[in-house]
Amino acid sequence: MALPQYTDVLIVGAGPTGLACALSLIKQGCSDITIVDSLPQGQNSSRALVIHAATLEALDKIECARPLVQAGINATTIGYWDAGSFVQTGSFDKLASYTSFPMILLISQSVTERVLEEQLKHAGVTVIRPCTTTDMKANEHDSHISGVYFENGQIVHARCVIGADGARSTVRRIAGVGFSDPDGETSEDDVANSKFSQMVLADVTFTAPLDLPYNGIIFVISPDNSFLIAPLPPSPDAPSEQLYRIGFGIPPTLGTPPHSPSVSYIQSLVDAWGPGRMHTAATSSSSLSPHKVTIAKMLWATRFRIHSAVADTFFTHLPLTSRAGDDARVDGADTEARGGIILLVGDAAHIHPPAGGQGMNLGLRDAVALGPVLAAYVKRVKASTSHGQVNTATDDSDLERSLRDWAATRRGRALAVIRMVKILLRAVTLPDKTSWILGIIPVNLHTLRNLIMRIITRLGWVRMMIAWRLSGLGFID
User: Fold this and answer.
1) Which residue, of 21, 124, 146, 210, has the greatest Cβ tally within 10 A?
2) Greatest CA separation found in the chain?
3) Where are the transmembrane segments (predicted)?
4) What architecture (CATH level 2) is domain 6-72+107-185+308-427?
5) DSSP symbols for 218-253
6) Nearest CA-CA partner of 361 in 75, 105, 74
7) How many CA atoms lie less than 13 Å away from 33 in the CB half-sphere?
8) Which of 174, 222, 212, 208 is nearest to 293 (CA)?
């Protein structure tokens, strides 16, 4: 499919965030949208696992929540297994007074993308694939337009470019926006602050059904690692086979995991830290030796590095000089009204460890919240330029104020989530070693954490507050 020469909004990236952004704009009457992705259909990964209540509330505004709920598994509990017993830490059903979606929706990212893209097709917009962005330049004749260049030689002129193209965003790089840990931490800090800095995820089936205590998210905590397991809706190719998402931290002693983990590699991780450590009776406190849990089929697996970063700004213009190879803005460059506006959403704007299942949720809420603001901007700027009214920087600033407010608000949300996720990760990965207070009092933080959690999570109010915090309902988007 050929790209248009002109569009009001060009969305680069057709993952969940880009698709939701397009749907939100359409809902607000902004129909001149072009959405592109560098990958062919069906090649996007399924890293994200959870959609939280606040995100479902946002998606309900664009009529996508109900189809997703029907396609996923509605779970209400999270918890962990350690030292022969199960601790329920979050009760999402207790949020029923605050949301229409008192649950954690378990659904793979690939299914989320499929549902959102189907909704977009019903609205008359088709994702154009594969299209790889190579550069952006300000239009010589209209200061409110950017020329976006593609690998195939085509050029699209857009009033607004939305970078929804992931953590290695080409749009962000060309715009010269910095992307770094908000606390100035490095990869070495990641290793020092937790047991691991690499993770492996996989979608698998097992040779025999697992006897799990409930149909939700379970962490199996070991002295040297943490293992995640959660049920997923069956694959369309094998509707009778129970599919599971599993995830592992990779301790530094194992080195860097392979780029494409094999079944044998994943099986070795299952043997070391997987569900075989759990007793089959969730109510029993006795410990048994790990039993063999064998992978029958692996549908997908990936590795990734655990780190956090946030863009310096979610709203910008092209710098005076822009080239795809630049890592930062040109010193002294004029950043006002140089080409169309550029906005960043999802992983292009923020990334952090997967603890709490917050990444895609934050991006989806970015996107849905952007729709009304950007649609109003496009309508106003088109009306103003058609009457020759936009001639000064003051006029530009007035038109853009709501978008700057959106960007500042969403960046604040991202910073709050990054702080929360870092705390969660460090709590999960407390070292199983004894420290001495005043040289005479032995304290094992791993054991102390488990004891405290067992005590406080007996209270339903505590389990509800943990669910509230993770659900995102504390933020009004």
Assistant:
1) 21
2) 79
3) none
4) 3-Layer(bba) Sandwich (3.50)
5) EEEEETTEEEEEEEEPPPTT-TTSPEEEEEEEE-GG
6) 105
7) 30
8) 208
For 214, half-sphere exposure in the C-beta direction (CA atoms, 13 angstrom radius) is 19
Pairwise CA distance, residues 38 & 156, whole Å: 15
Q: Contact, 301 vs 212, CB < 8 A? A: no
- 268, burial (CB in 10 Å: exposed 0-12, middle 13-18, buried 19+): middle
Task: Kindly report, residue by residue over 144-188, the tens digit of the pLDDT.
Answer: 789 999 999 999 999 999 999 999 999 999 999 999 999 887 655
Q: What is the torsional sign of CA 127, 133, 138, 139? A: negative
Please report, as a single letter, which amino acid is at residue 116: L
Q: Which fold has domain 194-305?
A: Alpha-Beta Plaits (3.30.70)
Beta bridge partners of 204: 244, 298
Q: In the block, which residue shows the tokens 């939305």?
A: 162
Per-domain residue ranges of the chain: 6-72+107-185+308-427, 194-305
* Secondary structure (DSSP) of 90-111: EEGGGGTTT-S--SEEE--HHH
Contacts (Cβ under 8 Å, ≥6 apart) of 4:
34, 156
Helix 53-60 vs helix 359-386: crossing angle, to nearest 10: 30
Three-state SS at 56: helix
| 6-72+107-185+308-427 and 194-305 share one fold | no
The residue type found at 124 is G
pTM surpassing 0.85? yes
Contact 205, 244 (CB under 8 A): yes
Are 453 and 459 contacting, i.e. CB atoms less than 8 angstroms apart? no
User: Cα separation of 111 and 150, whole Å?
Assistant: 28
Q: How many CA atoms lie within 13 A of 257 on its CB side?
A: 27
The string of pLDDT tens digits covering residues 73-120 is 999 999 988 767 788 999 999 999 999 999 999 999 989 999 999 999
Q: Which residues of the chain have pLDDT under 70?
A: 42-46, 83, 186-195, 279-290, 320-338, 385-396, 476-477
